[in-house]
Structures are given as C-alpha cells and as structure tokens.
Design goal:
Number of strands: 5
Strand content: 25-35%
Shape: globular
Number of helices: 4
CATH class: Alpha Beta
Amino acid sequence: MVHEMNTAAFKAAVASGNPTVVDFYATWCGPCKMLEPILEQVSEEYPTVTFGRVNVDANMDVAAELGIESIPLVLFFKDGKQADEMLGFNTAPIVAARVEKLL
C-alpha cells in the first residue's frame, strides 16, 4: 500500500532506516497518475518496504529542500539515506528492480 505523506511523515519514514520508496507527484501531472497504480502493484510485492507519495504542491518545503524540479520523481532510501532515484514514468518490472536493490 502506498501511503500519502506530508513533510513530517516523509522525514519520519526516511529516518526510520527502513527501506523506503517515495513518489513525488502533483495532481495535475499525467505521468504521475499513470505511475500511481504501478507503485501500488509493486508495494504489494514488497510488504517490508515503506511506500509513500508526497504531493509537491501541498508540501513545497520538502520539494524545495530536496531540489525537486521534475515529476514524477521516485526516491529510494536505505538506512536513512537516498540510495537511488527514478525520474518519469517507468514500468512495474523497472520499479521492482530498483526496490530489490534496497533489500
């Protein structure tokens, strides 16, 4: 399951040290809408990984802090640090391969 996150929830998930996948999106973004069901599908395959979504329009502070300029942007975190990133729409096998690297 992909959880909607605000800035505090995002920072708490990353700080936990658990493998975390976060999709930065906006409601008006077409590729972001296409990526949402892909992330839901992959999240079901990896129940030990935290999956979240951060709306960049509603959480401009974290988007600015991370220097996010293009969306959809998926960031992958391991041990509290960014381990990978994926810009734009991608298929489930590509996303799953990136998640595998976190485990």
